Amino acid sequence: MSHNQRYFMRLSYRGASFHGWQSQPNAVSVQSAIELAMSRALRTPIKITGAGRTDTGVNARLMVAHFDLSQPITDKAALCRSLNAMVGPDIAIEGIYEVAPDAHARFDATSRTYHYYTHTGKSPFLYPLSWQEPASPLNFDMMNRAAAILLDIDDFTSFAKLHSDNKTNICNVTHAEWSTVDGDASRHAFVITADRFLRNMVRAVVGTLIEVGRGKMTLDQFKKVVEAHDRCAAGTSMPPQPLFLWDITYPFEYIY
Fold first, then answer.
1. Residue-wise pLDDT tens digits, 116-136
2. Which SUPFAM superfamilies match (predicted)?
């Protein structure tokens, strides 16, 4: 009697062409594009489960998904090449790996890291994958003092999309910091790591930190926003294109 083999897939994508990660009716998603290519390549209907759901326009330097097959893949590299020829220029399938039958791309992930990019001055090369900072310099020291507050809280309702289907708004943020990109003072990245994220959370956090950096919100006001547990108290949600799902960690090694 044959049993299903579970596989993890590593991939990356540019989100502009897609209505987010998750399959939905009448819209092209990253998940549906990959499932269509896999079903054609393997000549059997395939469903994949991703480590998370990125919103419309958000990119992933690294996404992990799992799927099951009743027959083993004899040449994983060849399958990757075949899929890459079919999924279009905005998705890259980087590797397929055998994992334990109960390994789960979403539920086994122990942390996820996002990067949000900004830059000073106008740049046709960085835009739209980086947000142009205002002419008046942002106070990144104050923004980092505000970001440090995120490490001491667990209820992120103030930064959650209204009326979303989250069962809980509790997240454990372990890192939240602004820094320059490769030592370039004209470019910045906000890096945030947590066990889980809510829909729109990073873009709402960044928008509120920008308010602090502009001098329009004090640290005390930022604390009050967090404690309000009210999305309407926080800053504007930032554009999705400069946001990247950057890394996902697991308690086991799946690349070998």
1. 999 999 999 999 999 999 999
2. Pseudouridine synthase
